[in-house]
Amino acid sequence: MRAMLQKLLNHLSPLGLRPYLSPIRKSSFASNAATQILLQMEYRRMVREEKSLPKVSEVGFKVYSQSDEDGILLFIFSVIGASSRQCVEICAGDGTECNTANLILNHGWHGLLVDGNRQNVDRGIKYYETSEQTYVYPPQFVCSWVTRENVNDLLQANGFRGEVDLLSLDLDGVDYWIWEAIEEITPRVVVLEYQDILGPDRACTVPYSPDFQASCHSTKQMLPNYSGASLSAFTKLARRKGYRLIGTNRYGYNAFFIQEGLAEGLLPTVEVKDCFSHPKVIAGRRDRFPVIENHPWVEV
User: How far apart are CA 290 and CA 232, in angstroms?
Assistant: First the structure.
């Protein structure tokens, strides 16, 4: 990624723009909105000129996301373009560390952010209402416990229907059943958290319950183990809904799906089995999976 940014700077130098970027510290380089826009323009130039594009695994960086999802999403939407610049994030926390924040704050997207914790939502509302980037028209922030029975009503009540650019799901719970139930919106891209410790072979999820609560068994990090669904389960559901898997974040727990027919020659489909090589994933399957292996998983 750094090599690509350096290449971008070299490309911009003849245009007289490099002096304006040089004072930016390396630690803040990716978070600068102008720099991201220039990087976006470089990706688009590569597409126009039919240059070889980097892999999804090579473009990630963190601004507001948990890991490197911000860079990956910038890359994806640079390639496929944005139609409505609308995004929906379910289980957004307070909106300061999530997958839609960078698009909202640095790229002018409009979002619906949903969380079941009132304190999170109150903090998020205050944050976006006072942010220099969004105070004019902040995203909609809603406090609601999301179930498959209410998710479509929730979307419709807040004016989100039809095609949107991005849906992000990270409930640490019944994510599979929520995505399966969503009909009110048709996202062009879906990013969601899967349960990496289940490995590539099993297509399974926790059983549905409207009040499901993740259980934690890891004494070191209190990571929710019995929750969510496997990547194979989500990929099967994605195919039914008209999506294909194009990559994961660097640590192998957030997956990116894109609508069938979009950028098929530019963003190739990846195989589930190729998404489980990171040492974090290997350690989790070794140490955490045995603790919840015999829990009541549902094959799908």
Answer: 19
